[in-house]
Each structure stands twice: as C-alpha cells, then as structure tokens.
Amino acid sequence: MFDHLVVASDLAQEMERYGLILPPDLTFIKEMIKPLKIDDAEWPYEGRDENKSFLYEIVSNKQNGIDVDKFDYFARDCHHLGIRNNFDHQRFIMFARVCDVNGRKHICSRDKEVANLYDMFHTRNSLHRRAYQHRVTKSVEIMIKDALLKADQYILTKGSGGTTFCLSKAKTDMEAYTKLTDQMIERILHPCSCSNEFTPSPLEEARMILQRIMSRDLYQFMGETKLKKEDQEEIQKMKDSLENELVKVIPKDNFEINVVTLDYGMKNKDPINTTYFYTKANPTEAFKIPREQVSKLLPVCFAEKILRVYCKNSASLRDAKFCFQSWCHENDFLTEDRDRATP
C-alpha cells in the first residue's frame, strides 16, 4: 500500500525536497511500519545500520510493544470512549533514553517508571475487554462480515489496468483496495434504483443484515466460557466439538463460534521481561527489572482466550443456549450462569 501511495501520489519528488534520500529512506519507512524478527546473530535491516537499532522500536516495537502506535490510539480511543487513560506517554518520552545493550542500542526507561508501563499494558487490555473485543462489538463485527460475504460477488471495484475485482479479491490490487471505504456499506444499504419488488437486488440479503445493525437487532449472544488451553489445535478441537453439538438443535449457518484473545500484547509473556531500564545514578547502563522487585500484585497470567457463541436467529436462541450450557457442563467449563450460581 505504501509503495502504491508513493507512486500514485508522486511522493518521491516531495520526499526528496524535504531531504529524504531515496530509495534507502523508503526502505527504512517500510521496515519501521512492519519490522522483521531480530535475532542475536545477524542484522536483518537495510534501511539503517545496526548502530541505529533503537529507531526500529519507535513505530512498531517488536521488542516489548511499547511504541507510538499505542500512545496514539490509547489517547484517541480513551477520549472518545470515556475510558480513563492511566498511561502518560509524554512522561515516558521524557524519561526515555538510548542505551547500549550487548552491542545494540535500545530505548530504555527510568527504573521508577516500571509500574507506569504495567499500567500501559493494563490500559491496552482494558480497551480490548471493554471496547475492541466487547461481546456486542464482536456481534456487530460478525454481522458486517456476513453482509460483506453475501455481497462479495456483487460489489465490483475497478483496479489497475481497468481490471475489476470482487470485494474479497480487491486486496490483491492496491488501486482497487484504496477504494474499499465505508462507501461499500452505503452501496449495500442503498442498491441500484432499478431493483423493485419483482426483481429484487442481489444485495438484498446483505442489505437486510446491515439494516438489522441499524435497528439494533443484533445477533444474540448465547454465552461465553474461558478456555483452559492456548494451543490452537486444542482450541479447534473444542470448537469442532461444540459445533457438532449445536448443529443437533440449530442449523449450522444460524450460529457463530468466536474465540477472542485478551492479553498484554505478547501472548502469555510479560512484556516488561524484555524491557530495559536505567537508574538516575547510572544512566548509561541498561538492565532488566525482575518482577518480584516491581510488585507482588502483578498478574500471574498475561493472556486468556474466551470462547463465545452467537445466535443469528432469535427463534432458535433458547434451545441453542441450553445446548451450549450443557456442552460447557460436560467439558467442565464455567459459564456466566454457573458463575452467578456459585455460592
């Protein structure tokens, strides 16, 4: 996409006018957007030499997840959602400095800021739990997905060379992909006026799903349970097992099983374990802080997976919900109803 925007908008000349050196700086920009996995042996980047390694921790930090991308969306989303943002990114920047660690430079923070960094990851988890992965949010997300799938072959977008692409193929051509804006939803909601009651629009099924979103007639949440295992194969087995039970009481296309992950950004790892700090007395020496020196109140587990089930037709809700609860009971999973009933 970045390459396409540079060419389509003729940005190369403008970049050179501002002092960028092409093509090395273009390579560097792309490497910062999507960093590579760094090992201890060989330097993988071309945009900057190894003595500038800390620059790759600014935009998308694969070292520990502390980067300006999070600073940006924390401030934006907390503001618009009315959620308190406990992390002060300006304070972090004020105390950040570059230190040498085994021949490579890393962005380090003051030792006294370690608790604030845990607050940052807690804020991330809170945003995912209360907004991005909220069960109502996921219901709307599934409905939009279903609508787009039903409209896939009927919404055509012109790409490079005049080639037309359906929705699912447009991502393979950047000229077509840049046209996939919110206007696609409007095209489904307000199809061609040539359709009438005798010749309904092929987008009618997709439009009806989107109309349900507009009228708040969402897919019904049947329940959820926390999964005990992280292994993807085991999770797929559990989903298949549940699906086999649900299809006995409800058509397969009438429900959706969804697994969401809530974590601190590094699966089940503590991101602070890969973060370097310095002290006021010795600002050039980087070190890691053991969790036992931070607090005894830190999380023991840094990730959890939640299995959720949605019913697309409320007429089947009662039987499907009972089936889901029975499956949870047989597999020793707790559901909300059982949690509330526990003394």
Write the layout of secondary structure elements.
Elements: H1 2-8, H2 11-17, H3 24-33, H4 68-81, H5 89-95, E1 97-101, E2 104-110, H6 114-132, H7 135-151, E3 157-158, E4 164-165, H8 174-177, H9 183-189, H10 204-214, E5 220-226, H11 232-246, E6 255-263, E7 277-278, E8 303-311, H12 317-330, H13 336-341
Parallel strand pairs: 2-7
Antiparallel strand pairs: 1-2, 3-4, 5-8, 6-8
Helix pairs in contact: 4-6, 7-10
Report the sheet-strand fraction: 5-15%
* Parts with pLDDT < 50 across at least 5 consecutive residues: 338-343
Taking all residues together, what is the mean pLDDT?
92
- Structural class, by secondary structure, is alpha+beta
With strands numbered from the N-terminus, the spatial order across the biggest sheet is 1-2-7
Shape assignment: globular
Give a short account of the largest sheet. 3 strands, mixed
Rg is 25 Å
Question: Which terms would index this structure?
Answer:
single chain, 343 residues, alpha+beta, 3-stranded antiparallel β-sheet, 13 helices, 8 strands, 13% strand, disordered C terminus
What does this structure look like?
It is a single chain. This protein has 343 residues and is an alpha+beta fold. The chain has helices at residues 2-8, 11-17, 24-33, 68-81, 89-95, 114-132, 135-151, 174-177, 183-189, 204-214, 232-246, 317-330, 336-341; strands at residues 97-101, 104-110, 157-158, 164-165, 220-226, 255-263, 277-278, 303-311. Strands 1-2-7 form a three-stranded mixed beta sheet. A three-stranded antiparallel beta sheet has the order 5-8-6, with helices on both faces. A two-stranded antiparallel sheet has the order 3-4. A hairpin with a 2-residue loop joins strand 1 and strand 2 (104-110). The chain is globular, with a radius of gyration of 25 Å.
